[in-house]
Design brief:
Layout (H helix, E strand, L loop, with lengths): L3 H30 L3 H27 L19 H28 L3 H32 L5 H8 L8
Helix pairs in contact: 1-2, 1-3, 2-5, 3-4
The chain binds magnesium ion (MG).
The site of magnesium ion has 5 residues, from helix 1 and helix 2.
């Protein structure tokens, strides 16, 4: 059984992952509206990944005999000033998610919940990837601003993203 505290924290994490999906989908809609299909695809795929993250926690709560409680999801940001602003927001958002996952891990340590610690290892690794990917695109978009690469080329390159296993 999950402790009461850990159960509550994981239910909050499910909400955060679903909010992430909502945020990425809102960003995807922004890119669609600005005729940047590559960025639209990337953020849409990311939205899908966030739903998968939420479902990993959802399944985990059920596997451990806990009760999933879905919390309200706030409206995400609608308008952005530039692709760079979007990806800076993504990087900042993922850093917040990393902090949240780290807090869950600290709680699992305090509660001596070894199984939850093992489950969280996957998310700790995943956040390294998320921050790396977002940070790289932020760097590339800064190169666009410095006229080292064109936005259309970068959009095309980002749109080559393919679905990952697991
Ligand atoms: Mg996530």
């Amino acid at each position: 059984m999950l402790s009461e505290k850990l159960l509550e924290a994981i239910n909050q994490q499910i909400q955060k992952e679903l909010y992430s999906a909502y945020l990425y989908l809102s960003m995807s809609a922004y890119f669609e509206a600005h005729s940047l299909p590559g960025f639209a695809k990337w953020t849409r795929m990311q939205a899908q990944e966030e739903v998968e993250h939420a479902m990993k926690f959802y399944d985990y709560v059920n596997d451990r005999g806990g009760r999933v409680v879905l919390l309200a999801i706030q409206q995400p940001q609608v308008e952005f000033n530039s692709p760079l602003e979007v990806f800076e927001a993504i990087l900042e958002h993922e850093q917040l998610v990393t902090a949240s996952i780290n807090n869950l891990y600290t709680l699992a340590l305090k509660e001596n919940d070894y199984a939850a610690q093992v489950m969280l290892h996957w998310f700790i690794d995943e956040q390294v990837e998320e921050e790396k990917n977002a940070g790289q695109i932020v760097d590339h978009l800064r190169m666009v601003e410095d006229h080292k690469v064109s936005l259309i080329n970068l959009d095309h390159q980002v749109g080559k993203r393919e679905a990952e296993e697991d």
